Fold each of these.
Amino acid sequence: MTPGPRTPPLDLLGVGAGPFNLSLAALADGVPGLSTAFHEQRTAFHWHPGLLIEGATLQVPFLADLVSLVEPTSPWSYLNYLKFRRRLFPFYFAEQFHIHRSEFDNYLRWVSAELPSTRFGHRIDTVAWDAEKDCFAVDFTRLGPDGETLTTGVAHARNLALGVGTAPYVPEPLRALAADPGPLVLHSADYLAQRDRLLAARHVTVVGAGQSGAEVLLDLVRLRPEGAEGLTWLARTPAFAPMEYSKIGLEQFTPDYTRYFHGLPQATRDRLLPSQWQLYKGISGDTLGDIHDELYRRSLGGGWPDVTLTPGIEVTGATTTGEGRIELAVEHGQQETRGRLTTDAVVLATGYRERPVDALLAALDPYTVRDDAGRPQVDEAQRLVLAPEIGGSVFVQNAERHTHGVGAPDLGLAAWRSAVIINALTGKETYPLPDRTAFTTFGLGAAGRTATTPRRAAEERR
């Protein structure tokens, strides 16, 4: 029996189909002859469903969609989505530069369903380099609607793109209670699913001073009875601080700054990142204003709402009481004092961490070049730095903050990063990218290094 023709390997296989790999899939869809597939374990796309609170908006303009900042004429742009939904005129009259988060979720789900390269219900299990075939061998499992195994298979691809996203982070002192089905301790990612239970609780504590914590607190304040709100908001940061949102300040989310940050020494990058927390962990000024307005309105009668906002607090422990309540051990760093807070429910707006891919990439570990802290090195084109024995590239998305800076998880850089990957993949300028994107000059450029002060210039003329 004559064997059938061998299926050639894909040019690119995406692991995960969150917003960043979805951006890559959308831009790749417009490249003739480029074969791609994007495998996602979930059976359908959903973008932070637990935080699609009524009225919540994106913190970036709608132009930070999957494609527009690179290819605004793409059929996968947000404006084309509105055209498809016949909603362009309502959007035009709404004059909304920052759209509702639920609308952005609808847009992303539309793209994920319409793109021919997405494969939902496909879990990638392992990845290895097949030297004989000169490509990656990718073991995957096709899942049913309840997560059951339907079939297994192997796909082959010359290159990979890791976009597995992040997972909700629960601080160690609260992990035991969060895993216990009894106490009402949950991550903000599950907020809407548990909102009714939170509204029924006598007292709720929100932990975390980022945008999610602010939105959860605001929603609870609005929904709980006046004078009996029973809310406490705690944060480790020294203040409930606004996110940097000045026009020049935002230039730290440009390709120019990303390139500058990537060129810094590792030790400098590691020192710099924690100091930039207000660039990505702060709160929208509008949200802070809304919270103050709501609290002020509730004080018009002369009393104070039952809402406590305390920054500078770290939760160091958590237990349950005999009455089934939750007792938090807390410390105030500036006062150097300790105390206990009793509450009935805790919402952890404590952010997200990169999903580990060690098991997935175990076969590539001996070939992966790491920095002094043991983290994978990522080159300027978003590729893991691998030993020469590996002939293909492994691109990474939202797993490179240590090498590319605060813009790694930012939606505004999604299309640009996808274009960088495609250009590296095709070996040509498939998507032309601007040489300059900021008025700010980061670092001492060539002109700065050769410039002389008037005094020095006079000395040099002698």
Amino acid sequence: MSEFLAAHYLWLKALHVISVIFWMAGMAYLPRLFVYHAEADIGSDKSETFKIMERRLLRGIVNPAMIAAFLFGGLMIWANPDLMHQGWFHVKLTLVIVMTAVHGFLARWRKAFERDQNVHTSRFYRIINEAPPVLVVFIVILVIVKPF
């Protein structure tokens, strides 16, 4: 199996990058929706529309893209286990774990909005909206530059 994966490594890498792009697009957009949702009156048409948009974004794009990114990333590690011996890769994986935690918090906050139990301000979500892009910057630098 690892020979097959190694022979198709560039395809795995392409599919991994595509998955990550979709995951990050959703991770950048979801907290922005929360900013506007936090400013909407509970029970208003606006609030109900945000609930639908948030649910569809998370379940239809963000969750599947994260799963695909993990799948293709895992297959790349299987095809090239030497990655596990490189320092930059360990830092990258750590940042991916942090990104996954952010994903989990976004999912939890979406459920709170769905139950009309949001406790955070739009300012809070404006700050949270910066986490995924900052993490992506460091992850991309690690993958491209491989500084150590």
Amino acid sequence: MISALMPNFSRLDVAFAHGQGSWLFDAQGRRYLDFAAGIATNSLGHNHPHLVKTISEQAAKVIHVSNLYRVPQAEQLAARFVEACFADSVFFCNSGAEANEGLIKAMRKAQSDAGHPERTRVICFEGAFHGRTLATISATGNPKYLEGFGKPVEGFDHVPFNNLNALRAAITAETAGILVEPLQGEGGIRAADPDFLRGLRAACDEFGLILGFDEVQTGMGRTGKLFAHQWGDVEPDIMSLAKGIGGGFPMAAVLAREHVAKALKPGSHGTTFGGSPLACAVGNAVLDVILADGFLDQMNETASYLRAGLEKLIARHGDVFTELRGQGLLIGLKCAVPNGEAQAQALRQGLLSVAAGENVLRLLPPLVVTRADCDEGLAMLEQTAAALAPQVAK
């Protein structure tokens, strides 16, 4: 008999009763170090006092009014994002897939408004992940996610990641723009080469295309800057955000330059729940913490400490973990054993992690993780590697 919950998730047999900082506790009181962070979503960890206070106070005032009316919390949050990056305007929604849907629509509409209605196609990259809607699984292009859902949504072309020659060869008179993750998360913690990103910007400028960055997983401080693309000298025309933007509360955003944002006129796009007073109060609270003086500096120091420990782990246990990937606290361990087995063994040791493509184990600690937390995590991974080593020897 089917369960009351639809069976589209393979859930691990553990449930959590409460959390504190980087730790979660089950009903029996066993604690788990959360290096999954809700898949890079719980940016401030669990039970963060500023976040809890903000949610409680705003919920006691007004939760939702719809976008038929002004939402001061949204106006404030949008202005803060505009001040912090390339964007001129912001649209708030609820999930990464929804943000990417809005991004794709904005690309097409902006090209149409500019006199190019034929420009509807978007170039995406192998190994990408852009969401679970019909359009975003088509943008992702992974056959595993497309199987059984009929013909993919038309309008997406896929080329190898980090290959500028393939990218330029794929541009046609129908190309509207390019959508890329600066660092692929689901695809195996694969970083875009700086020269590749510069080449994407140059190609967009040359052919009148719109450059879109998917920073759903890489944004909100995850790589050590507010947005991953800020490590280089390349800025997009439009960008999607989600996950860490709400610290665990469902929220997302599309940030765009004026020439793209102005295409979304009244009636062209919308959302019922997006940009609510509660969601945007939470978003402001998360920014309060991440943009506070010294916060990202401290996070980068802790990330460097953790990564140094992981390098030593690989040196000792190269038969289990073979490569360190990623940036900041978006970390991948390439595995010599199936990453699902590594994830399961880490869970037995009390460490939560997330599997990714290319047989990679993702480590996504909250941005508030401490050195002491990292030491415990490294000890758990040491035990994980020791438990898996005999399997490798076979």
Amino acid sequence: MHFDIILPLVIYLIFVFALSIYAYVKRKKVNQFTDYFIGNRTMGGFLLAMTLAATYISASSFIGGPGAAYKLGLGWVLLSMIQVPTVLLSLGILGKKFAILARKYNAITLSDILYAHYRSKLIVWFASIALVVAFIGAMTVQFVGGARLLQSSVGIPYHTGLLIFGIGTVIYTAFGGFRASILNDAFQGLIMIIGAILLLGAIIYNGGGITAIITRLAQIDPALLAPQGPNDFMDFPFMASFWILVCFGVVGLPHTAVRCMAYKDSKAVHRGIIIGTIVVTIIMLTMHLSGALGRAIVDDLTIPDQIVPTLIINVLPPFAAGIFLAAPLAAIMSTINAQLLQVSSVIIKDLFLSTRHSKKYNDKMLTRLSVIITFIFGGLLILAAWNPPDMIIWLNLLAFGGLEAVFLWPLVLGLYWKKANATGALYSMLAGAASYILLAGYNIKLLSLHPIVPSLTIGLIVFIIANIFGIFCNREKNYALDSTQN
């Protein structure tokens, strides 16, 4: 094992746990349940930007994305920059309206917002179950990424690394809650930026400069320098699909949307858009470029996901490598933290409490129950990550697509279309989920597009048609009531 590398990582983890302890103590003085899940809506602009960026930037951005760039070349770097407007779209489309509704209805979860608009328990239950199922895949990817990071860089066996990383992340998430999440996101976001920039600089230096690296890539495979990549992998339908999946569709991701419920004021939104966009741009460009250029230094990897930890070991001194390994570790931990809290809040508030109307639970009891659920769910995810796939980016994108197919139209149309009703939302969610599962499960590509594109199209069409049917039924019902009363 590389103990010079392990030491900085241990220091980093100690700091993470210290922030979680601080958040735990802070929560004792306020409404514990609300603070545990949304931090009592006190985020300023900087924290909002960093938590959105850190939550969105995950193992795929630091492990899977650079791995794809290693395999497919500079075309994937260009493709990755499609993700730059994600913070702008999330805060611009959902931001202010979400915050207003969240305060009006005292909403803690995404399902609270859906119920406030549609008044349908069926929608809440379906949304909650879909979220939990999709997050199992999404978080499994993050656990795999963390374990592979420790395996490739420090020399810890995969399963041992999975246990160390998984248990540590679950503990700090369970006890720290949302406040610890946003504080750690700010800290981890800064580490990501510094680590990504310095890693790219070290790669260029060790590769003999940009010109030498590009020449080497051309010798390996000239297609690595082409926009379409080897075998024209990134054609127009793929690029269009990718834009929908990782840019526009991000508006429908529950763990991103819930951040829009927890900020302090409109000034925080405006500042968050600017800072968040800058952070995402820097990290996406530097990390994917590192993966693509890194192939000129290391050209014999059979598992592309190992490129970033391998490069860190090869181009940086051991102690510095330990410091910069904290960057991808931070990206993974921040995403797991956000998603675990989301699952816990859904299970407690949207599923458990909705069946216990006659019983009352105090904040302390609910918070303790949330901690227990976080531990149990985290343990199940560690088991799910025990036998990982070779490239985690595809599993992550699959989970992303499922969430977007279910949540995007009910969220966006629910906020901006006054006539949107429960019938339209429910059938849209069902149609989006069913079509995505069918297309992705059988690898069906209509017009060579990723399943998310036809799934969202079907979801939108079904929403409009079912919504009209719902309006007609409501009119008939009201007419029948009026006739009875007369």
